[in-house]
Design brief:
This protein is mainly α. 70% of the residues lie in helices and 0% in strands. It has 2 domains: 1-95, no CATH class; 104-264, no CATH class. The longest helix is centred in the N-terminal third of the chain and has 27 residues, at 2-28.
């Protein structure tokens, strides 16, 4: 039963990951979200049997059936990555509920909130990584949704708004001090999104701390390897996403561990 549930959740994650690939491409190219999927190289519509998440990529040997040009590795990696995230999220939230309670409104609200959160984060990660741009058409509705869900699960609305505004202000100050060299305007709004979701000052701090630690390590590695120069720009969005995911799944354990060190 448990294996079947894991498999089912994982398959749904693959499907959502496949939709993410389509959504990101069409957002970037200002195309309608409706209509059949097509090869970005030859524009040929993709048949359903060539559009099965992960499996079709393997069977087609990473090439379009029509034009035989290579299919980007982004497609299977995003599908697989989101499937793993989706499955992890389900069982992470479900650990506080028994099987019968998974249909309760409390579980469904928590799961829907964080599903939408990781869905938005996945878009931001890929978009900012490829094009050094945060898609505001996704971030603005995301902020509104996270404010709504935080209020719905019991946070005071004013507290949520203040947390969102203060996190955005933190990044705004950096933006002004560096004159836009350290981060972009989109990162300010991304800060508002993170503040609206986490609300708790400890989780917000952990997100920011993890972001800059990981970002610094990656930047140093790229400098050593000669991939970047000291004045090269590195998008902050992907690191904020990683920091947010660390807080989402591990904040409670990390914060508990940190305070245990202070006590002893």
């Amino acid at each position: 039963m448990e294996l079947f549930l894991i498999f089912t959740i994982f398959v749904f994650g693959l499907i959502f990951g496949s939709f993410l690939n389509c959504l990101i491409w069409r957002l970037k190219n200002n195309e309608s979200l409706w209509g059949r999927s097509y090869c970005p190289k030859c524009r040929q519509q993709i048949s359903w049997y060539d559009n099965i998440p992960l499996l079709s990529f393997i069977l087609l040997k990473a090439r379009c059936r029509n034009c035989h040009k290579k299919i980007s590795w982004q497609y299977p990696l995003l599908e697989l990555g989101f499937a793993l995230l989706f499955t992890s999220l389900f069982f992470f939230i479900a650990q506080d509920f028994n099987l019968l309670e998974l249909l309760r409104a409390e579980f469904l609200i928590l799961f829907l909130r964080d599903f939408l959160f990781i869905f938005i984060l996945a878009i931001i990660f890929v978009y900012d990584y490829h094009w050094q741009e945060v898609p505001m058409i996704i971030v603005w509705p995301g902020i509104a949704l996270m404010i709504f869900f935080s209020w719905l699960i019991g946070f005071n609305l004013l507290t949520v708004l203040i947390a969102s505004a203060l996190t955005a202000t933190f990044f705004l100050i950096q933006y002004l001090l560096t004159r836009g060299r350290g981060l972009g305007e989109g990162d300010i709004w991304l800060g508002a999104l993170l503040g609206a979701r986490f609300v708790n000052i400890q989780e917000i701090f952990l997100t920011i701390f993890a972001t800059y630690i990981i970002g610094s390590l990656v930047a140093i590695f790229l400098l050593i390897k000669g991939k970047k120069k000291i004045k090269s720009k590195v998008p902050l969005g992907p690191f904020l996403v990683i920091g947010a995911l660390i807080s989402l799944f591990f904040a409670e354990d990390i914060i508990r561990w940190y305070f245990s060190l202070l006590i002893f």
